[in-house]
Amino acid sequence: MIRLKTLGLAALLAFGAASAARAQEVKTPERQSWTFAGPFGHFDQAQLQRGFEVFRTVCANCHSANLLAFRNLSQPGGPSFSESQVKALAAEYTVHDGPGDDGAMFDRPGRPADHWVPTYANPEAAKATLGAAPPDMSVLAKARGYETPLWRSLIDVFTQYQEAGADYIYSLVALGYSDKKDPNHNDYFPVAGNHIAMPKPLSDKQVDYADGTPPTVDNYARDVTAFLTWVAEPKLEERKKTGLRATIFLLIFAGLMYFTKKRVWADAH
Ligand code: HEC
Q1: Is the pLDDT confidence value at 7 over 70?
Q2: Which residue in 16, 104, 234, 243 is a FRET match for 79, CA 20 to 30 A apart?
């Protein structure tokens, strides 16, 4: 009986220790400074253009972005490529279209109105090759985040922290592959005991930057994260501007109401 109890206690302790150890293995993403953070947040156009280059030459080999249309890339507030650049870019891709007049499907060069052409026709095909389906990148920056303790979330309400998705993606691809022996280990991947089906996607000098920005993993990760944030919320700047205007209006209105109240009640002694 006593032995059973001690065994049970030992098992409980071991379980506790193991789960504590497991919980500690998932690191909390590092908070980065982003141009799109805070009430004055805005996208850096040059950064979005570099981020797109990283997305298109690296990430898009596996990930889709089904909500992104080529024409979005020339819209204001985004990477703002010229319309002719976007036309040329779209034409580099082959779009499966149809049926034509003869009832058959056909391939044609892409047009600005087309959506991003995925490498894999569907998630099943991607999974069959890669071992897991890479999530679509259309809203990934909004769909990911991480847990914060309550006290931190309360502060975050006031600092308007909304970059959890960006911080997670940056940390995952730039800092997470810390185990030299296991290419599928990632400190920030919260499921499957840190085992991620995506091996380190970035290495130095992998993508050519036309604007002289150093071609490092750190810059690639930062730039592609900014790009993915824009993809997930192309109206972010507009939303922040509206919020700021509404706040200023309400402050002025509150002031006016204060003096109105004073005037209305001035004679009521
Ligand atoms: C070789 C294919 C491949 C490339 C290239 C690739 N990924 Fe992935 N990615 C995957 C797969 C597969 C998964 C799913 C991992 C899993 O579920 O274990 C994934 C998952 C992710 C996740 C999600 C993790 C989560 O929380 O679910 C992020 C973020 C991500 N990739 C970012 C990127 C970025 C950014 C790039 C480009 C710099 C990139 N990936 C390039 C295959 C790839």
Answers
A1: no
A2: 243
The answer to whether residue 267 is domain-embedded is no
Residue 190 CA: nearest ligand 1 atom is: 26
175: domain range?
24-34+136-258
Give the tens place of pLDDT for each residue, 126-141.
Answer: 999 999 999 999 999 9
Q: Supply the pLDDT for residue 21.
A: 47
Cβ–ligand 1 contact at 54 (below 6 Å): yes
Q: Which residues of 121-150 are buried (b: 16+ CB within 10 A; e: fewer)?
A: eeeeebeeeeeebbebbbbbbbebeeeeee
- For ligand 1, whether the C-beta of 217 sits within 6 Å is no
How far is ligand 1, taken at its centre, from the CA of residue 26, in Å?
Answer: 17
Task: Give backbone dihedrals phi and psi of 255, rounded to 5 degrees, phi first.
Answer: -60, -45
Specify whether the CB–CB gap between 140 and 165 falls below 8 A: yes
Residue 239 inside a domain? The answer is yes
- Mean pLDDT for the stretch of residues 116-124: 96
Q: Whose CA is nearest to atom 39 of ligand 1?
A: 59
Overall number of domains in the chain: 1
Q: Is residue 194 part of a domain?
A: yes
What pLDDT is stored for residue 192 in this prediction? 82
Least confident of 2-6, 30-34, 166-170, 214-218: 2-6
Nearest CA to ligand 1 atom 6: 59
Pocket test for ligand 1, best of 120, 170, 198 (most atoms within 8 A of CB): 198
Element holding 241 (H helix, E strand): helix 236-264
Question: Would you say the CB of residue 132 lies under 6 angstroms from ligand 1?
Answer: yes
